[in-house]
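new request in #modeling-help
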Amino acid sequence: MSYQALYRKYRPSTLEDVMGQDIVTKILKNAIQNHKVCHAYMFSGPRGIGKTTIAKLLAKAVNCLNPHDGDSCEKCENCLSINSGFNADIIEIDAASNNGVDEIREIKSKINLVPNQLKYKVYIIDEVHMLSIGAFNALLKTLEEPPEHIIFILATTDLHKVPSTIVSRCQCFEFHRIQNEDIIKRLEYICKKEKIIVDKKVLENIAQLSDGGLRDAIGMLDKLNAYSNSNISLEDFEKVNGIVSIEEQKKFLDYVFNKNIPNIIQFIDLIYDKGKDLILFIQNLLELCKKMCITYYIENKSDYDVDFLLAFSSNISNLLKNINFSSNIKTIFEITILSFVNNYHSSKEINKINSSINLDEEKKVTQSVVNDDKIISREIISENKSSFDDTKFKTKNKQIVNNCFARADKNAKKEFENKWSQLNDYALDSEYGATACYISDGKICAVGIGEVILSFAYESMVNRGIHLIDKIEKLLEKIYGKHYDIALLTNDEWQHEREQFISNKNQNIKYEYIPVDEINTGYIDNHEKVSDDSITSEAIELFGADMITFN
Ligand SMILES: [Zn+2]
């Protein structure tokens, strides 16, 4: 007997056997049991999750002469005839392989003929969204007044491409991706039946790679089985699927962390030459970083600085968003990694220098702010005397925060947020790529007429931004068509500023706009009465409810 693909061999034969689509099969069985079968069904959802399989099982169950609980008996003459695959009353049409006009015309011409053998003539139209307009129109007419003995089951991966006039005449079922656990269970079952020895880790990896598609998962198992003669190791899995092993992934991460550029280049060349899947490699790296971060937060241990892991993850996840559209994946991957290594390590160096100088600066600042919360701008003046870059940045930052509060506007924030996703368009730009990736990690805190406050999870990320500030301003100018002054804060600093803002509002202290780079007394007292409620609601409007804490 010729070899039968595992997917065919283990295809469910009844609705009851179907895995991972319990709700759909339950509703269908109930309908059959209660004699409430519809004349048109629409099955939508991703590929390989059982739409056409269920369509065929439904076609069998509605025609079974002796159904049990709404499911086929597998013994009656109709079940046997349908299982043989040669029943003229079950007609399958693949709309993807032709535009369907002829087929639909034929349906129309024969629609009034009674079935040859079965109770219902069932038309299963797969990938129905591919039908031409003409075919859709013809189909619509038959759907409007279908004869009693006809059932249409339409299946599609792109429901939005099917005309609503068609959809509205069908009972619709949305199929979901099958859970990894369910896929693993099914694979385990097949392995047991087929006497395949397999590492559980392999099955987990297959499930993850198949993205909820059971058909793909079983197909992968089949391929691996053929490759490894019924004894599948993790190594086989990696080889067959072009996957870079976890040890190799860690090695690569090490090169990046240690700024080992020759090894990085060599590594990428090597996996490329071996035919490994680069996109899969990036996805795996991302997964690895995520696991390491979780270990860090839960067990408080990590091989790397968590700042590094987060910065690297955000960089490669941005890369993933765009790399699919690119023709030269390898080059883009190399450039992204090199630019990350360059940016990350140079900002780390600067951090070291800054933290040693900051100790002296802090002393000066504490001395200059004397018990007078209302004149906050004294801080600005005292800090401004220093010529050091970082202090200048902080001074300017404070001015911008002040101005942003003075001119904050909820509509401005909304408008700003609306265009924020355009940053993605620059992710692969040779000049602005790194900048776009960097600021897309920021959170938009507040937006004024000409100023924006962005916050970041970590101080090192803010420090990275100091050196990118001109580029950030230029990039935002490209996106928004106007100049914004940018303040970069850590999330904690923003939290502090925000609380300060609310507390100042409560005391009727008003923020006044100071042109940046000009030293001004800044904050002034303002005795215009503002009610507490309106302050809180104003704050909510400006920053969003999630940022406001009620004491
Ligand atoms: Zn039967």
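bot summary: Residues 6-174 form a domain with the Rossmann fold fold (CATH 3.40.50.300).
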